[in-house]
Amino acid sequence: xxRTVDLLGLNNAEIAFGKLSARDAIxxxxxxxxxxxxxxxxxxxPYIMAEFIPRAEIRIPPAEYTICNNPWxxxxxxxxxxxxxxxxxxxx
Length: 92
Hints:
With 92 residues, the protein is an alpha+beta fold. The protein is 17% helix and 25% strand.
């Protein structure tokens, strides 16, 4: 089973109400599937780039993106952590 975390907080009350930061949420993640444009100007981008390696990129043509015309979500990057995440000090 894989745990999914919405880093923007739309489906995550802890992030939405400031009880958990996006950086803290990804500390235990081994993989990310993110829209890089959403984090372009944020302070979390350097952390993601330092900790994760891009493994794949999915581009969605605007004509095929049926939710809305949103250029921020046209590219999804799949990234793997360089070293396994730790939980409670125990490496997985």
